[in-house]
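debug: dumping io for the single-chain case to check the tokenizer round-trip. Nothing else runs in this session.
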Amino acid sequence: MNRTWLLVIGLIAVTALAACTRENPGGPPLRAAAESTVYASTADGEIYGQNATYSTARSTSAGCDAGATTARVGQNLSGGTVYYVFRAYLDFDTSALPDDATVTSAVLGVCADSDLSSTDFNLQVYRYGWSEGLCDAGTREGNYDGAYGASTTLEGTLRNTADGWSSGTCYTLTLDAAGINLTGDSKYALVSSRDISNSAPGGNQYVFVRTADYAGTGSDPWLTVNYTVPPTPTPTSTSTATPTETPTSTPAATATSTPTATPAATTTGVAPLTPTVTALCPVALSGHTTWGSGTVRIGCNVGLTATGVLTIAPGTRLVMTSDVSWDLWGAVSATGSVTEPITLTHETSTAMGSWGPLYVRPGASLVMSNAALLYGRGINDGGTLTLRRTSILSSTFGLATMAPSDVLSCTLRWNGVGLLAYGGESAPNMRASNVLDSTVWDAEVDQRAGVTVSGCWWGSAPPDDSRVWDGRDEMMRGTLDRSDYAGAWVGW
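debug: decoded output
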């Protein structure tokens, strides 16, 4: 049987099952999933102690800087006589997140600057509601003294400097989701483990981190917050529609000129949507085409010929205004960034299967990073797929693949089926990712060959085998090897 139709049959079966699961009156209501990136405010900075007695340098502040482009973390013995202790403070305005949101994950990112540590240490992160302004006479001492005291919560180690501290490199730490403040600011302190353990320095023991005052936003500290909100009632039925197969013939090329939207100015905080809109229909592409940045509204199927090259600019938001699919025979590059992610979503619907899928046909390629796909039918890979730091959420499938898809540091969550390997030849190279909370299966192997996935978080440790459908459930199927699993959420 033709492999395309095998997948269509699977889509119909899984979609029907997913619809029954969601419409079960005894089950939980389906919540809409979203992700926001929040950048640090310029209220951040450092406070330091300075004294010939180490205990006094630790307990009493001597100076503060809330306007520099970098902040120090660690300790120092200067000239063999004067001790310095440096503590950094970060502030994120997370009040723009919905008040009724349930935060499911949060990741802190901090970018390194110089390393002046002759003795290595752990850079510890504490959740700490320090007082603004950081350096004011009435708040500085309290902020300094409380950086890792009884009123703080240890979030973990951002970095051990023995593992390297490379200027311009950004390091991440998965935070406690419950610590995100939906009605105000989420604040943190960065402190050396040797400061905490009362270990006096014998020389330089500190590093520099980049603050919100550093040029541009590419090096600003950031929070990536994933959350769900109750669905907004709409008159549109939320049941999952049966997908319609897109004709597999190569779409005819047209000389449609694609205007580029001009991005609007942004402000610090939750990355705003750019209001400039480019409407596209019909969409049959050949040659070189660039979309974005800005918002691009798509109301008809997207076809890319074998000679076509489509580039989606960082910060582009692709909004499907109807149930449209993508049929890709050429090359697509959708490379966002931490500060300017790419989003593909439906204009109004928060139901699974509201658009898509993205078909990557044999001979085609799709490279996607720092992106999010929401409320669709996911990605169907029959070609060459490279995914990095991409979330596929609330979709019929996260990734359905009959190819050696290359997936690293991604999240497949709240989908009907998270990962589907089918077609007899699928061997996805998937690692260091999160696959969980699916309504049908977190993973399904629909082929004789087995599949190995490494270093992934499946929602529990060890992973729950009842969340997978493979050769242990039905003869003639291969098995999914998850023996090399992550013990917690994989941050990226």
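debug: round-trip ok. Residues 1-30, 234-276 have pLDDT under 50 and may be disordered.
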